[in-house]
């Protein structure tokens, strides 16, 4: 059947709420979301099997992104779709995949790693999987309260299976973390299997349509063949066959970190669309006293808040794609047995996931503030977008923890540079910094990129020197590292920013040659604005580590303000170009037709507090007091 999938989904009535989700109880929210999730899953399965076909070339992304409108919050099957299947596809053997990856599978799964006691430090995970060679089974066990799994999305009520990360024991030897497929609920009755204690963890700041859950195992047995065995094996006699690289088990985290960059770009484009469109409708104060009130988008300070959000959305879209392609390349190499590029990919994914999530949540909040009081309304959808993006700063590798991973990589190259050993081309600037081969500052995108590299070198040097000093003072390495950790994270942050600037600028220049001249001009303006914005934000660092002068900074400021003025006439067009449907934006402030006040009044009329002209609490609580006072 040929179907225009977007319209098809939009026309499924049960997917769209009459009562806004905020008015539902915790339980109702879940039940409403899960009803919709299974309708969406059915559509995805039909797409997969070819029972329905795509007629809109943009549909693959739209099926995913339209979910934001359907759930307003999050699809409770996000982890089932985004992590459970992808981990099986990446980490299970060919035979396991043939058995488990059936389109009509009964399994609804989740990814179960974090415990009450351990999230970041996964080597500290306490759940065990002990091989019993007499029965050819693993025994999954939760030894104590802190070992209870805690957080996995969909675990609370929905999942009947999971991929669980546990410490593998064979004949008393611990072989570290491995992934196991475990059924946790009966496929027919959905009751927890014997030896399984499972439930939901309660309301959160966001993600409240997803049933994040807890899970404990009481000596729960699974077949040996349920360990994911593509990269590592346990044979029938208990022989352990090591993986080619001991971090291949962490592959799903790496892939999700890469994917998240593009997802955050999309969240940013939603926030920018809402805030820019609203700013074009909203009038507040004249600029000159004898003039009518102006669109708030005409205030230069408002442009400063918003245009960086438009630009950042493009940055993360471009860099997300760049990382996706790198991931594809490195994965192909790994298939050939070449692990050489894995450390670099991990280092890039860590700092870029950290900075993209932090930037996205800060900029979404900036968009909310830019909408004044109305941005605080749930009906603006900005609070929900914020709650969604800020979670990404923590999940899939916490911000600081990931920056410290990238710092390990930077310090390795600084050590090579300090010892005058050969460096890869992309770190040649470390050597230049040591030799004081400083370029003369140029007030141009290329000059700013060089300036950011000098900051990376300068901050890595400072962190490295502190580390060495701590070591000379007799500290053990880990302690010395902890003492230098503020500087180490600063170096990583700078590294991420320099990558973002360089990749975005180079990709934009390339893209500009392939599009119309007028479009190329706007794209380059946005890219330049991004670089200028961050150069000005980091001018203190540039003064410390590059050859920039006070005059250069003043010139940068002027150019930045010029760019704001140049972008202003295209601002609404730029967010319209994100092409996000009203049904997905779910915002009274950001709809395409600009009927902000009418929509706000329509939404207010849905409040249950407007159902009765006089609320019954008046008779119960207010009247007895106010009438008594009157007497
Ligand atoms: C449908 C599309 C979906 C789109 C996506 C949209 C939305 C998102 C979807 C879902 C999100 C929702 C929920 C999120 C789900 C989760 O949160 S799952 C749980 C995630 N948990 C974490 O991320 C834990 C973070 N911790 C770690 O990753 C590790 O503990 C650590 C910090 C990396 C340290 O590990 P450890 O084993 O202790 O390492 P150690 O210190 O011994 O060694 C470090 C060396 O190992 C290298 N390394 C580490 N990780 C990797 C890796 N993944 N790949 C390659 N190499 C790795 C590292 O470089 C070090 O190497 P050295 O040479 O020693 O420096
Ligand atoms: C919405 C949401 C969904 C989630 N979904 C899932 C899921 O589906 N599956 C799953 O398994 N997990 C999931 N998680 C869990 C998530 O992966 C963890 O919360 C995350 O990895 C952070 O770990 P933590 O909570 O233990 O934080 P902690 O590690 O306890 O961090 C607390 C603080 O300690 C600091 N810290 C910790 N270690 C260090 C260090 N070495 N050096 C310096 N500072 C440090 C951190 O920077 C932070 O400031 C989810 C979490 C959220 C919020």
UniProtKB/TrEMBL annotation:
Residue intervals of the Acyl-CoA oxidase C-alpha1 domain: 250-411
CC cofactor: FAD
Superkingdom of this protein's organism: Eukaryota
Acyl-CoA oxidase C-terminal domain: residues covered: 445-625
Subcellular location, record wording: Peroxisome
InterPro entries: ACOX_C_alpha1, Acyl-CoA_ox_N, Acyl-CoA_Oxase/DH_mid-dom_sf, Acyl-CoA_oxidase, Acyl-CoA_oxidase_C, AcylCo_DH-like_C, AcylCoA_DH/ox_N_sf, AcylCoA_DH/oxidase_NM_dom_sf
Pfam families xrefs: ACOX, ACOX_C_alpha1, Acyl-CoA_ox_N
All copies of domain Acyl-coenzyme A oxidase N-terminal, residue ranges: 7-103
Leader sequence residues: none
Protein's recorded name: Acyl-coenzyme A oxidase
Name of the gene this protein is made from: LOC112051253
